[in-house]
Amino acid sequence: MRAAASANPGRIAPIVLERASCLATNGYPYEVCGLLLAQDPATEGRIDRLVELPNRHSGDRRVRFRIDPSDYQAGEQWAEDRGLRVAGVFHSHPDRAANPSAEDRAGAWPGFHYLIVPVGRAELGPSRVYRADAGGRLTASAMERPSLPRRDG
Ligand SMILES: [Zn+2]
To answer: 1 C-alpha vs ligand 1 centroid, how far in Å?
Structure first.
């Protein structure tokens, strides 16, 4: 096993990255968002599902996203009905790298994982996973994948 894989405390399943990349591609040039779901009630559980939520930002959705509390609650209920829990949030960065914005940092919840998927017109950039510490400060977990040619559909 490579060191990079074991250094990723989020342990996001490949299927989740695949799905998030697909949503980011389909949603381009707007930011898409949703919840990362884990099986294990302990925080270190593997994240193996996601649920997409609407981007409710009222301004330019190419550069911001917002999850409504009611959408969040619906997603959380959907997860609980399946024995899952919310472990974090994913969103895309159209035409931008996977670095958290000031808003991303300000909105981070302690213990949550944040997956950011950069997507361009022609390709997906390397996704990144961040984790908010007890103070809500985001730190990078690991680079999840290299740049890939964009697949349509
Ligand atoms: Zn962002």
So the answer is: 30
